Amino acid sequence: MSRRRAASAASGASGLVPRLLASYRDITLEALLSNLPARRPAYLYELIPEYPRRPGKGLRAALCLATCRALGGRLERALDSAVAIELFHNAFLVHDDVQDGSERRRGGPTLSAEHGVGIAVNVGNAMTLLALGRLRANRERLGPSLAWRILAESEEMMRHSLEGQALELAWIRDNACDLTEDDYFRMCLKKTSWYTCIYPCRVGALIATDGRFEVGRLDRFGWYLGAAFQIQDDLLNLAGDYASYGKEIAGDLWEGKRTLMLIHLLRTASEPVRERVRRFLGKSRGERTEQEIRWLLGLLAESGSLDFARRAARELAEVALAEGMVALGDVPDSEDKSFLLQMVRYVIERDR
Amino acid sequence: MSRRRAASAASGASGLVPRLLASYRDITLEALLSNLPARRPAYLYELIPEYPRRPGKGLRAALCLATCRALGGRLERALDSAVAIELFHNAFLVHDDVQDGSERRRGGPTLSAEHGVGIAVNVGNAMTLLALGRLRANRERLGPSLAWRILAESEEMMRHSLEGQALELAWIRDNACDLTEDDYFRMCLKKTSWYTCIYPCRVGALIATDGRFEVGRLDRFGWYLGAAFQIQDDLLNLAGDYASYGKEIAGDLWEGKRTLMLIHLLRTASEPVRERVRRFLGKSRGERTEQEIRWLLGLLAESGSLDFARRAARELAEVALAEGMVALGDVPDSEDKSFLLQMVRYVIERDR
Q: Where are chain B's structural domains?
């Protein structure tokens, strides 16, 4: 299949991606909710379903389950790992909201806004703990050797995520204004691609092949897919519709996040403009004003930085598709294989 | 040996406890620091040694190593686990400081006060991640079966710690003013005893006996020892000397913590006094005044609540010693066995 035909198939209105996403999301959520500890003490386990139950894409668990099935594995064998992946993801979200001081998540208040930082940090930790429990359950289902392997993969994923988060926090703290697009992509690989795409695909593939899969094979697919996903997320953050996006619009600007478009703006703007942006970024969140946010939004549009990011997302998606086709070249056609390839277009066309 | 003679031996000025504590602390700290990831990115791994390097007791790692040696195990086999225990402990401290909004820890600023909540949450998570890495390293040194077992013990410890933390946070959030001493002891078992004493002793014993140790055997010793330790900590918090204690004096009152003495005061005070204390506890940290703190400190002393707590710590220590002597009854005498038993008196006589 030529790249053009594949891309065209991927863009079809078949609805395969939304359908399988919804199906895998339901399966994972049910497994997640079916096995939570008793409700006591208050403000702990009862808060764990909050984020998972709100409208979310369920992308990460779906990538794990679809990769497992596309490579000939049974879904049930990957289910504990898919639940662990969703729990890790939600733990990151809860802590991320604490770290960024965010107010809204998936259309509702963040846990920290509603219950305070203390309880939110604790609930995030409990999610990580339950994820570890699911990975330990793999020992029964998959045998000790494969279970250890997946535990090691999980540790590597956590390491990348924490390092990516550290990079982003450091840029804000140090008011870094001389970053390059390469800096952004390095951060994005660690902060987004690894845990959103590379890790779920690796785990699904390892389970399908009983550990025989050469894990690096899907990495490039996952890396470009994750980068395209993150840039689309940054675009939605600035220009999305709150009703579907579910977070504060322009929250990234309030937080001073170093997105691809902001880095592009800082690199291409005239010195006086750059200096004004730098002063804005040097303020704390509370010092920033509505007016400044509107000014910066206009600037990002006029300077071509939004277009630059849109183009980058499209180009990354194209490379992701090509990499996916190479990586899955000798894998028999199936709904799950199509799902993985069509995911590429989905992540840059989604509106939430 | 009679209980009286044991207690007298335990109180001896032999200096065994400080000496072995310092020795085990050095060994563990060196192993911890010798294997940290590279320094980049900024604000992550470079901050991990911060708390471990500040003056601390190293109690938890020492309990693990001493239990292992007292039961005939080699120290080297328990070293990765001891490092994991210290890393878990420091992760709790870093997150606890975020959760409580604390300013000082071990004589220096808290990570959150110095670097912000975002970076502190991340560093705490990185400590937990590195602890997991040490537990995975157990697979090489101890074999997969014992390594899984210790992982399961670690998960149970984390569960108790998070549940204990949730209890304490919930009491503050809901302004619980009708707690009983039993409520306190339940919280204390989960929040303190499990990860401070029960878990380190269990792990040390499992390693010494290659998993054959009946883990429950040291639990009662650990439980009473941990409770005595926590009450002494609460007493030092109110009345300690900052130079040796290293935290804000009366920080617990600023934070509204439900300590044993506060619960005793609420239970025994006259209704008008109770009502005033309740109103004080209903305020946020920022609304409380220096004057109120001094008033409450005086009240705790006059009402006999401090004496009540001191008596409770002594009684718990006595029971801990008795339980330790039963649990270790058939264990040959050794320096490490003496260390474990003398620890009982140390925890209630320490000034930091």
A: 3-342
